[in-house]
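Box 4.2: Ligand-aware structure prediction
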Amino acid sequence: MSAAPPPDAPAGNFLRSIIENDLARGTYAGRAWRGRPGSAADHAGAPVDAARIRTRFPPEPNGYLHVGHAKSVCLNFGLARDFGGVCHMRFDDTNPEKEEQEYVDGILDAVRWLGFSWDALGSTHLYFASDYFDFMYAAAEHLIGAGHAYVDEQSAEEMRANRGTLTEAGRDSPYRDRPAAESLERFREMRDGRHAEGSMVLRARIDMASPNINLRDPAIYRIRRAAHHRTGDKWCVYPMYAYAHPIEDALERITHSICTLEFEDQRPFYDWVLERLADGGLLARPLPHQHEFARLNLTYVITSKRRLKQLVDEGIVSGWDDPRMPTLVGLRRRGYTPDAIRLFCDRIGVAKADSWIDYATLEIALRDDLDPKVPRAMAVLDPVRLIISNYPENASEQCTAPRHPHRPELGERRFRFARELWIERDDFSAQPPKGYHRLFPGNLVRLRYGYVVRCTGCDTDANGRVTAVFAEYMPDSKSGTPGSAGYKTKGVITWLAAADALAAEVRLYDRLFTDPQPDAGGRDFKASLNPASLRTIAAWIEPTLDGCAPDEKFQFERHGYFVADRRDHRPDRAVFNRIVALKDSYPR
Ligand code: ATP
Ligand code: MG
């Protein structure tokens, strides 16, 4: 994103206040930055950092980003932009098993699509935690040497049993006080592949009686014989997330390390690691500080990569970009715009207490974004024929309509009026309920941008299903002509000339789950899958849509917003997704 201020003035939030305070007090002023991540020695003597703050967005490349990540992206990149800082795009790829290049590429695409860039102050800030493995390993050896870490050879069960509980202190491992030299030797053997997975771990030596279980000698390195997507087979020991993350932040000279509330209890360990390594001269001060905010919980939506992956792997959805998925690729294919998602993130703000945001909030932001932008068109989704019996058989004439009701500069659309039209099946009723103003025998209705017609009756098949509706048009009632104002009709309906309309496949999407909190409290989210989350219909669309490109969006009048599907729409086969209906039909 450019350095220009965002169109919506940023709402105040506690993180902004923290940053303002830090800037006022000069907490991070005078930090040296040598132009790329590095240790204390690397940064020593380098110029003062031109970035006033540094934040980072640190996904693990084990899936595609979802709408929850968008909140974190908007927050981290947005704060950096607003405060003259830089936001690093960093892959937290310290866990070899589940990470893949496909996800790296997908995540970069998604962040770019959201409108953010990791190019700032004349350089690019794309980093991989795996590039710091050498440093992390050396730092671990330093901790061992300083008496702050030891190799524990207890079994996993023993370690679990000795960890204690919330009310009970843990018990020291018999290996806790072994000489540093012995731990160092074992640690090197671990690195050299001389021990089996799970046979030993490197642990921080803190306090087995700490009321914070995260400080009871947490593991910092473990053995994993797995190929890493970037370092291949170079390593068979990998750092634990809680140890790796603060180091990544410090090497990159992050000032404000913003994460979700689950990590609040990890903050003391985050600080413990950094203080030890800064005291040891390995990391430069001032050190980064961790700040927690409430994650996004959105009703009817799952925001866990692992569970979303399950939906993909089990074929419940067609892929990560299925238009029902809350992934950014899914939302994009569904027709969501980056502007709408950023608007949503601005509106929900940032708080320090967990809450659920109503899905409708996202849809309202979407409509607010699309309404002024997208052109209008008519479409008939559930068609029945309307025969204008007094209109000449082989005749037709042109009708016009604005492309957008409030933006005359977008010009006009042109389509034909003729004797045979398509209308919506529910725009006719043989026995109209009270208050029904559309077509029923004897009633006058305006065909939008066309003529006023009087309904004269219908044909039905053997089952009583309407096969055609009949009407007569008023030749002096054409929209936009002088005589038309004399007609007062309560009903206005949309239509298309049968000879003129284009056939389209229209996919009507609904929420994927019927439960507003599908996976809360450990519930089985697959039990509340909405069987009607996708309905595919054959529809007719306005001829002006001929030749529209994938991703083009329209408001189909009276129906909602639709997008030409970016995967399946082709010149010879129109495929549209319903992005969102015009109005929210869900109870709240
Ligand atoms: P998942 O469980 O879906 O894999 P995660 O938090 O493990 O989520 P990461 O790839 O580690 O996924 O997340 C990258 C960043 O996005 C982290 O800083 C994380 O805090 C943030 N994030 C993830 N989910 C949400 C959410 N629902 N709301 C806000 N931020 C989120
Ligand atoms: Mg994670």
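In the box above, the bound molecule is adenosine-5'-triphosphate. The two ends are 35 Å apart (CA to CA).
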